[in-house]
Amino acid sequence: MHPTLRTVLAGAAMVALATACTASDTDAARQAPAASVPPTTAATAPDTVSPAANRASPPAQAADAFAESAPGIAVRPVAGTTVLRDFKRSYLAMDAWTLYPAEGSTGRPLAALVLDGSNEITSAEMRIGRSDGAADVKACTTPPPDAAAKADTADVDGVRTTHFSSSDAAMSHYLSADSYRVVQGGACYAIDLIIAGTRPEVYDPPRTPPFTAQQAKAALASMLAAVHWTH
């Protein structure tokens, strides 16, 4: 055989052998299973936060400024007021459980929310009293003779009450009130919103009231709105 032809044939054989080896390696790679990858924390983490972790905590409820043992009456805190347990601050308003107690009445004061700044010139407070006496309960929603006008009704925390207004004046002192009466749980409850004081012009020099009548009425309205019933 001619030497040149022998060289050509040998080179062709080497190319064919290399091509066969490459094809074999490719087939083996295709048939071999993919290497397993161990799961990572990120891969297994849930897509969403669990309901328990995602649930917002309910807002904390402020303790009542005053509350009877259930069932009874309670008052939520009212900014700018002080809670007292007696009714001994007004010349014209007696310190009984209700603004107009009947003869032989046996009730008791529960609480008074007094507007901060109240003094002898002008004071504003909400009084809450209770009587379990049979006579007081029977006459609970009957307006007293001192009522200034015909009584009507008003809701206090969803409970229908009898409402009436009244006023009084003597020796330069004055008093005006809106009163609410209701029988709840077999007891008579008296809620009295009272503005009282002394005419500032009788002083020399005249005194300045701590707040206006309009401010006092707005404060008393917020006190009444804080009243609720416990069950």
Q: How would you describe this structure to a colleague?
A:
This protein has helices spanning 3-31, 41-44, 51-54, 134-138, 213-225, and strands at 66-67, 72-75, 81-84, 108-115, 122-131, 152-156, 159-170, 173-184, 187-198, 227-230. With 231 residues, the protein is α+β, with helices and mostly antiparallel strands. The protein is globular, with a radius of gyration of 43 Å.
Computed over alpha carbons, the radius of gyration is: 43 Å
Order of helices and strands: HHHEEEEEHEEEEHE
Structural class: alpha+beta
- Quick one: how many beta strands? 10
Principal-axis shape equals globular
Rounded to the nearest angstrom, the distance between the terminal CA atoms is 119 Å
Residue stretches low in confidence (pLDDT < 50, at least 5 long) are 1-60
Largest pleated sheet: 7 strands, antiparallel
Count of DSSP H/I helices? 5
Write down the overall mean pLDDT: 80
How much of the residues is beta strand, in percent? Answer: 25-35%
Helix share, percent? 10-25%
Spatial ordering of strands, largest sheet? 3-4-5-9-8-7-6
